[in-house]
Amino acid sequence: MIYRHRDYVNSRVNTHNYQGHQATMPNSDSIRIGISACLLGEQVRYDGGHKRLPFASEELARHFSFVSICPEQAIGMGVPRPTIRLVGEPDNPQLIGSSDSSLNVTSQMQSYAKRTVAKLNHISGYILCAKSPSCGMERVPVYDDKGNGLGKVGVGLYARELMAAQPLLPVEENGRLNDVHLRENFVLRVIAYARWQAIAAQGLTAKRLEDFHRRHKFLLLAHNQPIYRELGPIVAEAGDLDDRADRYIAKFMQALKQPASIKNHTNTLMHIQGFFKDHLDVEDKIRLTEVIRDYAEGMLPLLVPLEMLSLYLRKYQVDYLLDQYYFDPYPRDLKLRMGL
């Protein structure tokens, strides 16, 4: 079922109920992801069309709610409407009409963006429309006042405000989500950030911080081992909890933003293998080592050693591993590890 209500001027919120793995997702009815409205198939582009992103509308919609926003429509530009582009300096461009330079909606867009992103503390990620002068997160062409390309690129005005106001928020573009590694990494970050938001809403305690860090240990090792080693001392500090939490989550999200490499996954798998040394017979140990080696050499996908380890985990119930998010970081039916 889809519910709609108007939280923002000319924007819509689409809510899809989530029912999933309790160990993977926070204990809430749904995780919300902001999204450019055209990516959900809404006909709000300048020409009355859309840029529907099937991964969002067909795959993610099974598990997440969408906060659907079209900034250009929201500031009253209508559909269809004149095209606009970034003009001037890439770090501080104006939003000007492509055919009519007297059309300048810079201040309207900046004001709308500031008001809107301030109300988005309830979302856990955002998918933006690539190359858009309002929503593009990177590589948006910038022109001079005569319409000549400068060979420079900038960031859409709405996207700039969003990322400045919420630097921890996982943000991606529709085009980049065609890359299997970036797609997997985005969803992983969204759910991890939602877990953090959930414990912050409950009331952060030293114990909850310790549990959060412990349960993400192998995910962190797979993504960024140097930052993982920095996070442990922050958790162990005796100082102000709010200050520690702020420093922790900033580094935590920085660590996960780096997609996990084959080398780091291999090291992590070998680390986990060590927990079964007293359970496996010689033949099983050899076979597991061979499978991890084959993954490291590109002959097997990540799913194969993970499935073997998950089988042993279910069989031998190794306490420290049972609630590790590394084994089940997001809904399985999204098939995000198929190409890793």
Helix content range:
40-55%
Strand order across the biggest sheet? 1-2-4-3-7-10
Tell me, rounded to a whole number, the average pLDDT: 91
What is the string of helix and strand elements?
Answer: EEEHEHEEHEEEHEHHHHHHHHH
Specify the overall morphology.
elongated
Q: What structural class do the secondary elements suggest?
A: alpha/beta
Q: Please report which band the strand proportion falls in: under 5%, 5-15%, 15-25%, 25-35%, 35-45% or over 45%.
A: 5-15%
In total, the number of strands is: 10
Count of helical regions:
13
Structurally, the number of domains stands at 2
Largest sheet geometry: 6 strands, mixed
Question: What is the terminal-to-terminal distance?
Answer: 33 Å
Unreliable segments of 5+ consecutive residues: 1-24
Rg, rounded, reads 22 Å
Pfam family, one: DUF1722
Protein name: YbgA family protein
InterPro entries: 2-thiour_desulf, DUF1722, UCP037004
Domain DUF1722: 217-331
Structure description:
It holds the Pfam family DUF1722. The protein has 2 domains: 3-178, no CATH class; 181-340, no CATH class. It contains 13 helices and 10 strands. The chain has helices spanning 54-59, 71-74, 106-117, 157-165, 180-202, 206-215, 217-223, 225-236, 241-257, 262-273, 282-296, 303-316, 319-322; strands at residues 3-5, 12-15, 31-36, 64-69, 84-89, 92-97, 125-128, 140-143, 149-154, 171-173. A hairpin with a 6-residue loop joins strand 1 and strand 2 (12-15). The longest helix has 23 residues, at 180-202. The relative contact order is 0.10. Residues 1-24 have low confidence and may be disordered.
